[in-house]
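To assess whether the prediction recovers the assembly geometry, we first specified each molecular entity separately, as shown.
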Amino acid sequence: MSTPSSTSTPAKASPSPHPADRLLEAIEQVGAPACVGLDPVLERLPSVVDPDATPVHRIKTFSLAVLEAIAGRVPAVKPQSACFERYGAAGVAALACVVERARELGLVVVLDAKRGDIGISASHYATAAADLGADWTTVNGYFGPEGFDPFRHGRGAFVLVRTSNPDGGRLQSLRLADGRSVAEAMGGIVAEAGDASIGRHGYSDLGAVVGATHPEDAARLRAAMPRQILLVPGFGAQGGGAEDVRPLFDRNGRGVLVTASRSVIYAFDSDGAGWSEQVADAADALRSTLGAIADAAAEGGGP
Amino acid sequence: MSTPSSTSTPAKASPSPHPADRLLEAIEQVGAPACVGLDPVLERLPSVVDPDATPVHRIKTFSLAVLEAIAGRVPAVKPQSACFERYGAAGVAALACVVERARELGLVVVLDAKRGDIGISASHYATAAADLGADWTTVNGYFGPEGFDPFRHGRGAFVLVRTSNPDGGRLQSLRLADGRSVAEAMGGIVAEAGDASIGRHGYSDLGAVVGATHPEDAARLRAAMPRQILLVPGFGAQGGGAEDVRPLFDRNGRGVLVTASRSVIYAFDSDGAGWSEQVADAADALRSTLGAIADAAAEGGGP
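The predicted structure of the complete assembly is given in tokenized form:
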């Protein structure tokens, strides 16, 4: 598998070789487990962004401006691959530019691609993510470890365990004969596979996606996956709040990366030239909110 | 959601509007439920294929030649998106050319992309597949119907239910409290959602992926999904045989599309100029084998 060129690694950082360490240290440095979801949709772009350009060019310009606005304010960004793939080959090229710039700006990149396959196909998807420069990739665990292990090898993977959408419960909430939910069983598979690579902070290169919208499951899922960094969507716009994510932290206020997308990247209230300052302010607000939740979790004790 | 231009629809066909009918009629016309998996890997290409070109160009040239060899011999082709995405934007552009040519040649295109997401991201993936020209797309059902319904709307989707890889059983074979396996529960979700759109031959635009390597599950999965066309990988190279796929057919010898990849596209025994005739011969052999299995299923009675 190829690795990204060293020129795309930010010069100021000296990243740990283990992906979990690098992510946790980036969170530590900024002071909050905050990740901005970069889900650019043409209809919601500020009208001042390249109004006469092609759709894919506007998406790219907007995304690059968002990166400038959030860099240094949050430790990580999560580009949504679908928003770029929707424009075919040109969209994939734009995504590559966006990921490259994010890394230049020192952001940890979580590629939200939700890929999953087996054998050589899984390896191909992993290579594509690595060539793009993704530090972590979201993956589908339905195939078992064969589907997600190729995404490790010096990078990290977040396996879908409990998704934030209402329909996700249709399968994920079903009860097994042993009393666990399907999501907990998936978590168990992830935890077991994850033990093969643990960084010096005690976390694995194999994390899990656990939505902020299921507080009733949070403690059980954290207990099933003690060494998994949890990528937590659904905070803010999707309804998850502080009380929903707090049980996911460990007793040191660590082990979580919370994502917010629309509430940050569309935070502008006018189409004017100042839109990106409002995005920066929203990123600051997200950092403050999540920093406080992490601090409270550390004081109150997690699992 | 956009639709492909009418110029990419083969002139000779007058396709039914319902994707299940179109697929079943294509199978009927050729006489066998055979689908060639197009998983081109650089290391396995015949050396005579564009030896001095770039990797992605060689992949494309090979794929186009395979399409010429198999057109008219099998009803459908299943391009593996990962094999193209591995080359980034250039690979996606090559995939678009390959899908367009497959449709010109009258092949039903099953895009093997295994996408899955929610909300606008799911819609974007579905749009990308439609813009490419895919008739059907493979999708991940872990999100529930919200994840796969966007792929319908005049096209079809095959949801991953029971995959052919050994690791797939880690989650999919677990027993629920009600006695079903996780795969059967996924099948139940697919069957219920699929009833919203049934073609005149009695099959839904929502199919399911069921590997040929689990004969013990075959009858139960078919019973759980009576109106799903089953996309069956794992035949041939992965070990599935005639007895493994026969229980998946309905009593008319219908309702199944069996895929074979390596045993067809790499059927050449030398690197010489005649490699594509050997691929054509392998496609003919696949058609004969599967035609006979379908006939036997019709005589012997399925469920």
